[in-house]
Structures are given as structure tokens and as C-alpha cells.
Amino acid sequence: MTDERQLAELTEDLHARGVDVDAVERSLRSMVVELASWAFADSGTRFKVFAQKGAARTVFERLDDAACVHKLTGITPSVALHVLWDLADADIDEVLAHAEKAGVRIGAINPTLFERDEYKYGSLANPDAAVRKTALAHVLESIEIMRRSGSKHLSLWVADGTNYPGQDDLVARRHRLVEALKSIHDTLDDGMELLLEYKFFEPAFYSTDVPDWGTAYVLAKAAGAKAKVLVDLGHHPQGTNVEQIVASLIDEGMLGGLHLNSRKYADDDLTTGSIDPYELFLIFNELVAPAGGEALHPAAYMIDQSHNIKPKIPAMIQSVMAIQETTAKALCVDRPSLAEARQACDVIAAEEVLKQAFFTDVRPLLAAVRSEAGLPANPLAAYAESGYQQEIERRRAHK
Ligand code: LRH
Ligand code: MN
To answer: N or C: less crowded end of the chain, CB within 10 Å?
Structure first.
């Protein structure tokens, strides 16, 4: 069946379901997803880092690869930086100039509060005031970088915690964090936002100072109005209803952003949509519901992954496409029928409405939206044909 035929059939079917296809297309055209610079670098586990031919070695090469993904997908115009990973041996002005030349801009700035030896017992929550001072200074430097890059989001993950019962006073650690977050918040300029990311464990294995959404919510509220919560999909205990957390944070006006990835067990940082596409769909269903199912809730959407064995750039393109497809499916939910079934407590009918959208093949619609924008209908196939992979393997051969 021709693409046109497929598209016509899909559009007809969606219209029959009362879905406003123009609104769906508008949302798909206007969505943006930020890329993590570190997802383009060689990464692995404590057991092995499998170096990849052509993998980006510098922040400049990571920006080039991100720009390649943006050229092919059209929806990834910005790149998040991790300060000590990206700016340790590069000046922000050089990085800004290179980003502009490559066709991307610098997005969220992530202070790196886990690489220094001093952070053995924590950074902002460390019992030692001198270490806390060092950590706070690094975060304030990160805000200075935001002023130079014009970034809106300070994306803060505090790896702090303890490894053994009794190691530290858990309430005292909390007070240190509240104090630090307050001064960080009060240093932000208008228009800037602090995104506080939580994670239930690792690298700490007994207590983590920002372990869950509730703690992040309370700490963000205590810090001030510019502070919101960031949900990383891989940072929850098994069995957590992540879509309910997302729905609650939106309802509270406290969802600042999401780190998108997949996981089977722990913080696996696998490609988005690879392990549980239905859970991802249910999360995006909650992200479009507040706008009557017609648009994604305004928040910072970022891909936070590490590609240990998959070729990094195709893995990133695959993730962007999975996010587009999942968003399109969520926008194709027959909202009136869902409301009706819920009102009637018709559990099966309500679930079937969601499943109908989840099992809808939205790819013809995405291909059409991309083509209309002058983008390749299938970015993954276009990357394979682009020769970029061979070019970087050749150019970056001299490791
Ligand atoms: C922590 C995390 C955080 C980043 C890091 C690279 O696991 O998700 O967002 O700082 O990964
Ligand atoms: Mn993350």
C-alpha cells in the first residue's frame, strides 16, 4: 500500500474517532526534545567501556553529532551540557561559537557534583562546610555559564547520600541541602528555572538525599518559585507508577522537566521506548491530557541516555523517533469516548480507548509531517544513507 494510501486511511480512521488531525500535526511540528551531550561520548559500566569507532571525544564533536541528529529530525535544536564533562577543557564562548556554526544551541546546564574526591561524603549535603562551599561555588559558576549561554534551565542532580546506617545524621543532611538550594535559587535570574532531579539510589546505597518525587517537591517548594521537579524515567523503584507521579506534578504546577530513557532493572539509561513502550505511552498520555489531549504539557523534555553498545547517533535518532511516535499516539486518544467510559466506570471500554491509540500505527502521519517540513520521512534510514558515520570514523580515527 502506498504511503499516501496509508496516510489517507489513518487520517480517515482518526477523524472517525473524533481526533483533530490538524491539531496532532501542529503539536508534532512544534515539539522539541533536548539532547544530552554525554550520550554521544564513549560510556559503559564499571565492568567495561566499549569504545566505538568515530565516537565523539570532545564537546565540539558531541555538538557536531547532536547537530547531525537535529538536521535529520528537526526537533532537537538544543544540547544539555555537564559542566565538568564538557567545559573542563573548553571555554564556554568557544563552545557557544561552535554550537552556532553547527546549527544547535546550548540548553540545560548540569553542574557536575560527583566527580571530585572531596565529594566522597557528599557535595551540598557533606558534613564538611568547606566541601559544601566548594560544591555551592561550582553551582554558582554553572549559573554564570547559563548567563553566557542564555540557558533557561539549571538541571541539578545531587548524587549525595550515605552507604551505611549511622554514617550521617539524615536530618542534618536535609538541612544542609535546604540551605544550599535556597541560595542557588536566589542566585537565579528571572526567566531561569532550577530543575531538581531525584533518584532512589546510586551512587549511594543506603540513603540518597533526594530519593523521590516527594522529597524533590518539598525541597523545590522550600527553595522558591523558580524551582521545579525533574522526573528521570530510570530513577524509580521497580513497580513505581511513573505516569501517576507525572500527572500529580503537573497538577501541582511542579513538573519542570523529564529525562527520557528506558530501563529494565535500575538506572539503565537505555534508549527511550525500548523496554516498555506502553508505560512510555501512558506517561505521554498524562503529558497531553492537561491540554485536552491536544498538546504536550510545557516542560523541559530531554533525552538522558548512555549508549554502551548501540551506535550512538542512530540510537539517539531511534529515541527521538520513539518519542515522536509515542507523542503522536497519545495525541490520538479518543478523549470524549475515554471520558464517557470513565464516567460510566466502564473499565474495559476506558482501557480499550487507550489501547486503540497505542496500537495505532502513526508512522505515516509522522513521515508526512517530516516531509512537509523538508525533513527525511525516516531519519534513521536517512542517517544510514548520509555517510556521516563513515566520515566521522575516518576523521576521528587517530584516537
Ligand atoms: C543521574 C543522571 C543525571 C545526570 C547523569 C548523567 O543518574 O540521570 O541526570 O547528571 O545521569
Ligand atoms: Mn537524568
So the answer is: C
Q: What is the percent of the chain with per-residue pLDDT over 70, rounded to a whole number?
A: 99
pLDDT at 399 over 70: no
Predicted TM-score (pTM) of this structure:
0.97
> Which of the 8 DSSP states describes residue 117?
G
What are the two backbone dihedrals, phi and then psi, of residue 271, each rounded to the nearest 5 degrees? -65, 140
- Nearest C-alpha to atom 2 of ligand 1 is from which residue? 157
| Pocket around ligand 1 at a 6 A CB cut-off | 38, 110, 157, 197, 199, 232, 259, 267, 304
Q: Give the tens place of pLDDT for each residue, 74-131.
A: 999 999 999 999 999 999 999 999 999 999 999 999 999 999 999 999 999 999 999 9
How far lies 137's CA from each of 141, 161, 227, in Å? Answer: 6, 20, 19
- CA pair distance 146, 149, nearest whole angstrom: 5
User: Are the C-beta atoms of 9 and 370 separated by less than 8 Å?
Assistant: no
| Cα-based distances in Å from 324 to 21, 247, 296 | 15, 20, 11
Ligand 1, closest atom to CA 202? 7
What residues form DSSP beta bridges with 154? Answer: 109, 194
Cell representation of residue 77: 535544536
Does 151 have pLDDT greater than 90?
yes
Q: Residue 120: name the closest of 129, 112, 131, 110 by CA.
A: 131
